[in-house]
Design goal:
The chain has about 120 residues and is α+β, with helices and mostly antiparallel strands. It has one domain. The two termini are about 30 Å apart. About 35% of the residues lie in helices and about 10% in strands. A 3-stranded antiparallel sheet has the order 1-2-3. A hairpin with a 2-residue loop joins strand 2 and strand 3. It is built from 4 helices and 3 strands, in the order H-H-E-H-H-E-E.
Length: about 120
């Protein structure tokens, strides 16, 4: 595996996601309840720090609908920090997910500015 774009924030994000999914399943479930949207299969999250070996040449996940798909991938994004990581490498493509916050009793979707960029088809 070659490291395409090494940066400390991306490395720390990978470690944080692994630890959260492995040791904080209740927190992951709570955050999933605040997540809206869907995956646009742009594969940007699959290239954070390095290209996932499960990506095909067409940038499609070969294990997306398989029990072999890693738990970290199943739960991505965990929070707004993950959306910022995607935006950092996004090439102008925003993530299809956003997180809802309760403001004065009304849910409001929040995204980083970069995450509001056009999404891949």
């Amino acid at each position: 595996m070659s490291i395409r774009r090494f940066s400390l924030p991306l490395l720390l994000g990978k470690v944080r996601r692994f630890l959260m999914v492995r040791f904080r399943p209740n927190t992951i479930a709570q955050r999933a309840a605040l997540r809206q949207g869907d995956c646009h299969r742009c594969a940007i999250c699959c290239e954070l720090l390095y290209r996932c070996p499960m990506l095909s040449k067409d940038n499609l996940c070969m294990v997306y609908h398989s029990p072999l798909r890693p738990a970290v991938c199943q739960h991505f994004p965990l929070d707004d920090r993950d959306l910022r990581d995607v935006a950092r490498l996004g090439r102008g493509i925003g993530c299809g997910y956003a997180f809802v916050r309760q403001i004065e009793g009304h849910p409001v979707a929040e995204r980083t500015k970069e995450a509001l960029e056009p999404r891949c088809p």
